[in-house]
Every structure is written in structure tokens, then in C-alpha cells.
């Protein structure tokens, strides 16, 4: 508890590679939730002890596959109602997961717990430069309120330059009720 | 009356809007007058919806012919589950019967399976799944539990001994209206489908509608909220049916309400941080049940009271049942912890049901050995 500033948490965690359960790396982090203005994202500082696995091969395979598509990629409901994700869509889903992490971070307080629930829709946006761009419509599930928030996010990715969320906005709960 | 399907975000991005018929001409005129270009994506939304409905009815899967050929490793429709129940009863008339305990808001029957080796009004265990409709692994697990009881009631010593003394009641689809809605309209629907006057929003959270600090902190009085408690306790027929059943039965000794996701085993209270008088015992049972669950596939569960483990919640099921005197009141939150969340892949149904069953047996055995 830091007077006039906020609440700081010191964390020790283990990161586990979901694609390789035996691959883990230790991590320490400090998270500061600001007092007062709930519209500021918490401050996060972290240190990763060791190295993350090299993913160049998988990155390049995915990159080249998308780059060589004749028509822009379009997909919906990932996973579907039964939890299925086709193998070709798995990287699209992982990308959304990473990108949603940014959106979640920007919108988190000490009283929220967000998870990516589903990709409702994803559309590739062709670019003239080397980046891949995807326009996602995702559903975020917030555990405490149990609400589902539709959210739009524009995601840029490149094997060497990583992930960027260039634009995101919460969407209205439209006429699905 | 404009219904935005893609809200305005910033310059250069399209906006999608559904326009009711009377607003069509005025809107077109307005856009043209302001030099805003538009294109029509769907001429007639209603036609599309109607078409989808007929498609879904037509591609309706063939109903199962026996509980031995039933596919437990996939998610089923309400009709398929109700057919399954009838098949189970027909195949095992001496062990299982089907009771209708009430009707949902949309007038769907609320069915409970009763597993009994005889006696009259024996002490009983109650298990419910699917009270929150989007938690699909729970209804699917309920179906598996029903079959498991039939398969094991003689050869499994623990289960056999439970059924020697107690009856088991199992409500598989506790919220059928919500369940159908998750299959036809919105996979993420949680609540019931009731309409209460004064709001355009539909549905009440059936796990905030019980008479246990009803309306207190930990529920919402906003009808549009996912945790809306409803206009009054037991306003929801799905909840009232269980309340009436429990009170009329009068001899239920263990009550387990099953949800997903988060991998937790919880006991009361949710509405207050005051521990229940039986806290120590419930905590011990939980520890043992979780150990049994984990022993199968290594799935990690946390356990504790609702308020200390998950969040404050008022009007909750097991807070009410505990206060009714049902000491062994528990809630499960099944797999996973968020990777798939509500959309748990079907291939995890059976492993989830199997491990959960081990925990349920711990609870049922303890109840059998500590009848009160």
C-alpha cells in the first residue's frame, strides 16, 4: 500500500509454454495499480530469468502462408461452440490471445479478471508493407461481473517486429439478446 | 432505433448499422445529404434469420437409439439429452426414474433423474448441472454421471454402498431455456430467459435468485446485468422448482451444484465472510475430494468458501441449501482456467466428468458415513 499512489504487488511466477509443457521459465514482476483514476492501466515491470524458446521456424511458416494467400483471410467463431479450432486457425488464435493480453492490461483494475472467450470474427487487411494486419472482433469474459464484452482490435504482426495493437475499442452488446 | 453492429471508432473505419424499415428512407436521405457513402450488406436481416432457423431444424441430428451408442464425447442438444434420459429410464426401470419438478419460463419441462434401490424417502444426494446455460461441460458431465451410476451401481463398492442407504437426484439441464438459447442464438448466454416488467433486458442469474441474503452485495439489481438477482427471491421457476422439491423432500443430506469454469471446489458462504459453523469439516472434505479429482489426470483445483476463493455473491444456491440445514453443500467450477473457458473442447468432456466423479464420490461417501 503506497500512500497517495496506489497498490503495488510483487509477483514471482513461472511462465509455461502452452505448446511445450516442459518448457518453463521463471519471471518476477511488479504491478502498480494507481489510486483514483481507474482509466490508467496498471504499471508493469518484469524480468524474465532465462530465455524464451526460439520460434523463428513456426513464425516464418505462418508468415509466409498468410503472405501467399490469394484472398484475404476471413474466419469466424474461433473456437467454435464445441471448442474446436482447426489447425490452420491455431496461430490466428494465438495471435489474438497475445493481442488481447494488451487490451486486458489496458483495461484491468484490482477488481477485474479478464479472459479471451472467443474470436467472433477475424479479417486480414492487406498491407503494402511487410507487416501482417488482422482486424479482430473478440469477446472478453470478465470473471467478477460475469459480463461478456465484445471488443474490436486491430493487430499488426511481423516475425522480427512482434505484435502491436494499433487500435482497439469496446463494442456495443448488439441485438444478440 | 438504429442498431449498431459495428460502432464508430475513428476516421477511415466503416460503421455497420441495422436499420428498421421505417428509418430506412430518412437515414438514406441523411447520409446522402452529408456526402457519406454507404453500401447494403444485407437487404433483409429477418429473411436471413428465418433461413438460418429452417436450416438448423433441417440439419437436426438423428436421435440416439440407446445409452450404449450415445456419444458422451460430444455436446448435445436439449432434445438429445431429454431423449437420453428416457432411454436411460427405459433401460433401467428398477434403478432410475424421471421426475418433472416444474416448468421453465418458456414452459419447458424441468426433469430430475432419481436413482434409487428402494426404500421410502431415503436420505438423498442432489446434483445439478447446467444452471448457467453457457457452461456446457456441466450438462455434458451430468449426462455422463447418469450413465456412470447405471454402469457402476453394482460393481463399484463405494457407489453400491451409497445407493444402499441413499437416493441420488440428478438435474442435468437446470436451465433449459438458457441452454436452447446458447444453441440457437448466443453461445455466451448465462441467465434464464424471463422477462420482468420495466426492462428491455431478458433473464435473471439463477445463482443470485435464491433466498440467502437475496439482493445483498454480490448481485446486481440491473436487469441487463449478468448477475441480475431478479425482482424477488425464487422469481425464476427454475429456482422455485428446486426450492419446492428440496422442501417437500425434506431429507436431502448433500447438495452439489455444478458450474464452469475455474477449477474450484467451493462451500458456503458467498454472501458473508462469516465462516459457516461446519467450516472445518467442509474444508476437510474439500481437501480430500480435490485430491481424489487430481489423482486421475493431475488437474489442479483450489478450494475454500465461495467468498474467500472466488468473490462475494448473494442469493446463491448453496448458501440457501446450507441455511436449510443441508450441511454438505458444495459448488464445483469445472475445467478449465480460461484457455478455452466456456468453449471447452468436446474431447475434454469425458476426462472432466471422470475426475469430477471421483470428487463427487468422496462427498457422497462422507455424507453416507455421517448421516444426520
Can you walk me through this structure?
The complex is a heterodimer of chains A (177) and B (372). Chain A is of the alpha+beta class and 177 residues long. Chain A has two domains: 1-53, Nuclear Transport Factor 2, Chain: A (Roll), CATH 3.10.450; 54-176, Nuclear Transport Factor 2, Chain: A (Roll), CATH 3.10.450.10. Chain A contains two helices and eight strands, in the order βββαβαββββ. Chain A has helices at residues 56-67, 90-106, and strands at residues 6-17, 20-34, 43-49, 74-78, 114-125, 132-142, 148-158, 162-170. In chain A, strands 4-5-6-7-8 form a five-stranded antiparallel sheet. Chain A has a three-stranded antiparallel sheet with strand order 1-2-3, with no helix packed on it. The model of chain A has no long low-confidence stretch (mean pLDDT 93). Chain B is α/β, with parallel strands linked by helices and 372 residues long. Chain B has two domains: 3-41, no CATH class; 46-369, Aminopeptidase (3-Layer(aba) Sandwich). Helix content of chain B is 37%, strand content 15%. Chain B is built from eleven helices and ten strands. Chain B has an eight-stranded mixed sheet, sandwiched between helices. In chain B, α3 runs parallel beside α4 and α8 (279-297) runs antiparallel to α11. The longest helix of chain B has 21 residues, at 349-369. The mean pLDDT of chain B is 94. At the A-B interface, β5 of A face β1 of B. Chain B: Its cofactor is Zn(2+). Chain B: One of its GO terms (biological process) is proteolysis.
